[in-house]
Request: fold
Amino acid sequence: MEMLSLKTELTENAYPGRGIIIGKSADGTKAVTAYFIMGRSSNSRNRIFVEDGEGIRTQAFDPSKLEDPSLIIYAPVRVLGNKTIVTNGDQTDTIYDGMDIQLTFEQSLRSREFEPDGPNYTPRISGIMHIENGNFNYAMSILKSNNGNPDSCNRYTFAYENPVAGEGHFIHTYMHDGNPLPSFEGEPKLVSIPDDINAFTDLLWSSLNEDNKVSLFVRYIDLASGTYETKIVNKNV
Reply:
């Protein structure tokens, strides 16, 4: 698979929607994840990321302007022991609760499908990172309608064991802007992961469309110690 430029992927796409990146730093010492949200409506844009324990949650920037919270207020990131869960919706909680009773990542998501926001039927994208004894594996999932048909849910899971240093994968909700918005197609895109969290954060934030970007979360987890560093960038400040 060809390694793609994250800068190019983001700058040439005005609306990838929400996106998850997971991989390993170039020096092989860190597990890395990033999650961003974008918005076209005033309700979607009226959000910020805030820290919530070891994870984060979305919050209305101006509560007086919050319209429908059902698909925009959720916890994108939660930590369960040595597992870090990253998703674009409240399926974070579904995965957390499922894995807490020994279900697998894939089994936990069996009870969910794409978002009920026709005609877009936004895919639910999810990621799970597992770090144990210095080893790191991750998986990604997308639940999507069958080419816009809400009567059928297509489920895809991609697992990456012993990922290569400097490599990661990027999955997002939409192929590009449109009406209705076209769902992501294919397997997650192969991208490079640098060592420097500040440089990576700056690259992602500066590459996202200025009008549509809302918030960005980046975390680097040390594989040896399990300690982590987190960056959060909000357009609304």
User: Anything to note?
Assistant: The chain has one domain: 6-234.
